[in-house]
Design a protein that fits this description.
The complex is a heterotrimer. By secondary structure, chain A is of the alpha+beta class. Chain A contains ten helices and 21 strands. Chain A has three domains: 116 residues, OB fold (Dihydrolipoamide Acetyltransferase, E2P); 91 residues, Irregular (Dihydrolipoamide Transferase); 223 residues, Chloramphenicol Acetyltransferase (2-Layer Sandwich), CATH 3.30.559.10. Chain A starts with a strand and ends with a helix. Chain C folds into three domains: 30 residues, no CATH class; 331 residues, 3-Layer(aba) Sandwich (Rossmann fold), CATH 3.40.50; 34 residues. In chain C, helix 4 packs parallel to helix 15 and helix 5 runs parallel beside helix 12. Chain C is globular and about 75 Å long. The chains are: A alpha+beta, B alpha/beta, C alpha/beta.
């Protein structure tokens, strides 16, 4: 059984990648021995005689004299008369990548490298055959390469830092999941920070581009990241424990308008005017006091049992109102108003106690006329009526005018406290918040008590700190110990 | 526009420099009649004569040492070291004399010597023909070190190197000598300064910095990576001493990640300097540490193993993946 | 031997008396007849195959019998045949490069056969003929040119150092080795099996290198037992002798203070005689000598070189007529020391050897990639070990294994 072996043009050295067949020394039918000179080739640099690497009979000259061919091109076919045991059909061309070369990816040498030349002067590589190299004086020569990766086992490539969001340049083809590109679009400013802070952000799942930097030069500090977290933004809370820290805002499909416009009128308008006028004319100061109101709460319970108060609502607010009235009697200057036009402070000898109420029509502050003259029962009735009327939206205008001091009750909402704005024309407003069971120190021991915090905003033009403080303290004293009411008469 | 190989680009550049200035002379082994073992000086002795294109005795130290003398006399020698591994006999002359003489003379003396060295592996050669020794010279104050990577740079940079009055070690990527490219030889000047880096390919996610023979590997790697959705910006450093840190830093500030690659061993190679400098300059911009992909810390192996030794496309992209994983 | 024995004049005994004539003779270059080696060329066998006598050296071949001469012939033919096979293998891509010794066989076999087992040889990268004489397997040499290793044989096994590619570096190594032999007391004892010397091979181009000149200095001032054997094959790639020296190379030895002799490098008998004389002298403590084997590089520098660019083919033709093998064959035939049967047998043996070399080359296993990290240091080095592990892990990460 015979086999045809082809001898490919080996590299002739000196960096050349092609040669001209000058003279054939053999013809078809000739017998050749190993190393017989079969052809003379010419490169740009020299004339070289080539010996044939196998023995047999020349079956065909594959290239004619005068033709120029590239390294690796078969130039002669020889029938070797040997069995097909020869492992390689084609004679190894010069510089062939030896099959035994461990680990070297058998590169399909193509002009593929030339494909990378769109943007830069890559240059075409000579020799685009399967085994050709570009030869040198002192070695096998330069191997051709192509822009292709060897496939790796899954799991060996390190997991990427970011979710596999594609940039504008990415190919639409599916991305190898383990090695996706970071999700950051073109032109976006980079988050500037140092490695430990990056790690912190990554661990917390925070997108640094969403963090407000406080460092010089726009650098994000550790504190900035922590503040971002504490700010409880949606991004921080929604970030998954493991995985992509870069936050992708969800896109919601909405139907209808994105905005609703409400004309400013009615009560809203009045309230706004009153608030603005008050806030921007009277210098507001707010003081706070935290007080143990357990005794008041007990009193409330007792009163609710009392036949005197059987058919009227008794709430802690009632006691607060009474406390305020008692305190006002002791500190009459707080029940006053600043009359800028007349250049006078007008101290009122009556207390028209306003109760801020949330009504269907908006915030309203109806007041109880001459509340300082009322008994506790009368006060309770008045408050009940006021609140009911206000809820029904039927508060008459007369009830809204003439107030001299106000209570606002935020406790019903569970809110601890606030900094209330004075009802226009008044000098003080008391904010009454939620009453809670809190640990309190009683005779040296920690006990659960009913505790609340009162806030008093006052007009600092006519109410100084000591007046305001004494007034507030007096209110608190009554709440702490309602028997004070008896002492103060 | 001409299409030239790197070898021809240097050849043409040398010719132009010699035409412009009579004082430019070439010195080296086998550069005259033979035209150099890579034919880079082909035809020059015939046109400029034996006094200007000198076939020297076989002694590298002699080439550089006598070049110093010629330079002192007012000539502008362009010396060829036949292969990178053969520059070592001349190391003393280069480091002790060429690099230091200007400072020694307080500026009275200048040595406008260019030392051309074909550098790098990948040619299937025997020992000493595949070295990458640029770090030794970049580390030597008084020398300038540059490395061209394409025919246009080869053509212009050799002329610029000859024109500068400082000594320049001029690295030529020997496995790329036959790479072709477009060169506008009629232009007044080259597109860049001798010490400028160049963004060879724009990208978004990682900067891949390299020089000389590895530039092509980097570009091929960037192309392969693009198919995975990764956008690599390739920076051809071109100049190793000085390094164009402005261009590189601007790139890193854009991408936030840097991988440096070179054939020379990673340990104490050029990448180490780049990494230290960029880490300092771009600290707050870095999403990942600067990574280096280079040859192993070994003598260059026999040619059957050189592909395992040299950083190839896969190894470069492995470095890119690691950078992206931070 | 040169006509002025430098050792007995100014250099050795001090400079009390300066002989002006001697100095003039020392510094005047000897006129050279182009290409024939000059009047001082030592020759015992002409290119035509005729024996001639030399007053100093005939004695060294007096004891050679027909067997020895046939042995020389066989060596020359086999060495040439292996060299030709390797050249062909390179042309076929089985070797990355090959440095052919075509034309220099006699210089290498003649000197190689003059060495005693305990002598040490430091070659360049072309001394395949010397390797043959030392008993180094030709396949060991091929490994380097195939790119499988950088040499890789044990130098001490055959007292034949690894090939040195950096031009001339080995001459210093040889000199240092010789200085070691001195310190071992193996010079001038008179014991033929103990006394040893070193031979350092290098080419004409190498004589310009600093290392070679330094080696001459060190050998001279130390009186080291080293014979410097320069194969002047007339060309250092493309550069001829006149680019390397202004004076015949053998005469440069004078300047360093030791004798130099030029021998017909294509005359195996003369080379043998001169080398034997020089090695005997060195072993007996007379110090270094320079032998210039005047020969010719019939092929190219390496297989990819193109000599037509820098030398004329007429020159090559002239040297073809000085072929080392042809002249010996003529001599053997003329003196009925060998017949057609013998010559054919040698040719057959050469072909078989070539086939063995070819097969050995083609089946030479490639080195294991991890072996790259071996033998860098004697003691374990952390960077090497770390990179070895990194390399292994990296390659294990590819599909289809490594």
């Amino acid at each position: 059984m015979s086999s045809i072996k082809r001898f490919n043009l080996p590299d002739p050295g000196e960096g050349l990648t092609e040669a001209e067949i000058v003279t054939w020394k053999v013809k078809a039918g000739d017998t050749v021995k190993v190393n017989d000179i079969i052809v003379e080739i010419e490169t740009a640099k020299s004339l070289v005689e080539l010996p044939v690497p196998f023995a047999g009979t020349v079956s065909e000259l594959l290239v004619s004299e005068g033709e120029t061919v590239e390294v690796g091109t078969p130039i002669i076919a020889v029938e070797t008369g040997q069995g097909g045991a020869a492992p390689v059909q084609d004679a190894p061309a010069a510089g062939a990548v030896e099959p035994g070369l461990e680990g070297s990816p058998a590169p399909k040498l193509a002009a593929a490298a030339a494909a990378a030349e769109e943007q830069i002067e890559e240059g075409k590589i000579g020799g685009t055959t399967s085994t050709g190299r570009t030869a040198v004086l002192v070695g096998y020569g330069v191997k051709q390469t192509e822009a292709k990766r060897r496939p790796r086992k899954t799991g060996t490539t390190p997991a990427p830092a970011a979710a596999p969001a594609m940039t504008a340049q990415a190919a639409p083809a599916p991305v190898a999941p383990a090695t996706a590109a970071p999700a950051r679009s073109l032109g976006e400013a980079r988050a500037l920070t140092k490695p430990p802070v990056r790690k912190l952000a990554k661990d917390l799942g925070i997108d640094l581009t969403q963090v407000t930097p406080s460092g010089e030069g726009g650098i994000i500090t550790r504190a900035d990241v922590e503040a971002h977290v504490a700010g409880g933004t949606a991004a921080a809370e929604a970030a998954p424990a493991a995985g992509a820290p870069a936050y992708q805002a969800p896109v919601f499909a909405r139907s209808g308008e994105r905005e609703t416009r409400v004309p400013i009128k009615g009560v809203r308008k009045m309230t706004a005017q009153a608030m603005s006028a008050s806030a921007f004319t009277a210098p507001h100061v707010t003081e706070f006091i935290t007080v143990d109101v357990t005794r008041t709460m007990k009193l409330v319970d007792r009163l609710r049992e009392d036949r005197e108060f059987r058919d009227v609502k008794v709430t802690p607010l009632l006691i607060v109102a009474k406390a305020l009235l008692l305190a006002a009697r002791r500190n009459p200057e707080i029940n006053a108003t600043w009359d800028e036009a007349a250049g006078e402070i007008v101290v009122k000898n009556y207390v028209n106690l306003g109760i801020a109420a949330a009504t269907p029509r908006g915030l309203m502050v109806p007041n109880i006329k001459d509340a300082d003259q009322m008994s506790l029962r009368q006060l309770a009735d008045a408050m009940g009526a006021l609140v009911a009327t206000a809820r029904e939206g039927r508060t008459p205008p007369a009830d809204m005018a003439g107030g001299s001091i106000t209570i606002t009750n935020v406790g019903v909402f569970g809110v601890d406290n606030g900094t209330p704005i004075l009802n226009q024309g008044e000098a003080a407003i008391l904010c009454f918040g939620a009453v809670r069971q809190m640990p309190w120190v009683v005779k040296g021991k920690v006990k659960p008590r009913w505790v609340t915090q009162l806030a008093l905003s006052f007009d600092h033009r006519l109410v100084d700190g000591d007046l305001g403080s004494r007034f507030l303290a007096d209110v608190a004293a009554v709440l702490e110990d309602p028997s004070k009411g008896l002492v103060w008469g | 526009m001409s299409t030239l190989t790197i070898a021809k680009g240097i050849n043409n550049g040398l010719r132009r420099s010699m035409e412009r200035d009579d004082k430019v002379i070439l010195m080296g082994e086998d550069i005259g009649k033979l035209g150099g073992v890579f034919r880079v000086t082909d035809g020059l002795q015939k046109d400029f004569g034996e006094d200007r294109v000198i076939d020297t005795p076989l002694a590298e130290s002699g080439i550089i040492g006598t070049a110093v003398g010629l330079a002192l006399r007012g000539y502008r020698p362009v010396c060829e070291m036949q292969f990178d591994g053969f520059v070592y006999p001349a190391f003393d002359q280069i480091v002790s004399q060429v690099a230091k003489m200007r400072a020694r003379s307080l500026g009275a003396v200048k040595l406008p010597i260019v030392i051309r060295i074909p550098v790098g592996g990948g040619i299937g050669a025997v020992e000493h023909h595949s070295e990458s020794n640029e770090a030794y010279f970049a580390h030597t104050a008084g020398l300038r070190v540059v490395a061209c990577a394409n025919p246009e740079d080869a053509y212009w940079m050799i002329q610029q190197a000859i024109e500068t009055d400082d000594p320049v070690v001029f690295y030529e990527p020997k496995r790329r000598y036959w790479d072709k490219g477009e060169v506008d030889e009629s232009a007044e000047a080259g597109p860049l300064g001798l010490y400028d880096a160049r963004v060879a390919r724009e990208g978004e996610h990682v900067t891949l910095a390299t020089y000389g023979p590895m530039v092509r590997v980097a570009l091929e790697a960037a192309q392969a990576a693009a198919e995975e959705g990764k956008s690599i910006e390739v920076v051809d450093l071109r100049s190793l001493s000085p390094l164009d840190m402005d261009t590189l830093a601007a790139s890193v500030e854009k991408t936030g990640r840097l991988v440096v690659t070179h054939e020379a061993s990673t340990f104490l190679g050029m990448g180490a300097e780049v990494a230290a400098e960029i880490t300092q300059r771009c600290f707050y911009h870095l999403e990942a540490p600067v990574l280096r992909v280079g040859g192993y810390n070994l003598p260059y192996p026999p040619s059957k193993l050189e592909e395992e030794f040299l950083p190839d496309l896969d190894r470069v992209l492995d470095g890119v993946d690691r950078a992206l994983a931070y | 031997m040169s006509d002025i024995d430098v050792a007995s004049s100014a250099g050795a005994e001090g400079t009390e008396h300066i002989d002006e004539a001697a100095v003039a003779a020392l510094t005047a270059p000897v006129p050279e007849t182009i290409g024939d080696g000059g009047p001082e060329l030592v020759q015992l066998l002409t290119p035509e195959g005729e024996r001639v006598d030399h007053p100093d050296y005939s004695a060294y071949v007096a004891d050679l019998d027909a067997d020895d001469l046939r042995g020389f012939y066989r060596d020359l033919v086999l060495v040439r045949r292996v060299d030709a096979e390797a050249t062909a293998l390179q042309r076929q891509g089985e070797l990355g490069i090959w440095a052919s010794l075509l034309g220099q066989e006699a210089a290498q076999v003649g000197s190689g056969r003059a060495l005693r087992p305990q002598d040490y040889a430091f070659p360049t990268y072309r001394e395949h003929g010397v390797a043959w004489c030392r008993g180094v397997n030709p396949l060991n040499l091929l490994g380097l040119f195939r790119g499988v290793n950088h040499g890789g044989w044990d130098p001490d096994e055959k007292n034949f150092h690894l090939y040195t590619i950096v031009i001339g570096a080995q001459t210093l190594h040889a000199t240092g080795y010789a200085m070691g032999i001195q310190r071992d007391g193996a010079v001038g004892t008179g014991d033929a099996d103990r006394d040893a010397a070193v031979v350092a091979y290098f080419g004409d181009g190498a004589t310009s290198q600093g290392d070679v000149n330094e080696a001459f200095v060190y050998a001279a001032v130390n009186n080291a037992p080293v014979v410097f054997f320069c194969q002047n094959n007339q060309w250092a790639i493309s550069e001829p002798n006149d680019r390397q020296t202004r004076i015949p190379l053998y005469q440069r030895a004078r300047g360093f203070g030791f004798p130099g002799v030029r021998v017909d490098g294509n005359d195996v008998l003369a080379v043998y005689a001169v080398t034997k004389a020089a090695m005997d002298a060195a072993r007996s403590g007379q110090g270094p000598m320079l032998i210039e084997a005047f020969t010719y590089r019939m092929g190219a520098h390496t297989t990819s070189d193109d000599p037509t660019k820098y030398r004329v083919s007429a020159e090559v033709e002239v040297w073809k007529h000085r072929d080392p093998i042809a002249r010996l064959k003529a001599y053997l035939t003329a003196h009925a020391m060998a017949d057609t049967e013998f010559f054919d047998a040698v040719d057959r043996e050469a072909d078989e050897l070539a086939a063995t070399v070819r097969e050995g080359c083609l089946s030479m296993p490639d080195p294991e990639p991890l072996s790259m990290f071996d033998h860098i240091y004697v003691e374990e080095h952390p960077v090497v070990e770390a990179e070895r592990a990194e390399f292994a892990a990296y390659h294990a990460s590819f599909e289809g294994g490594h």
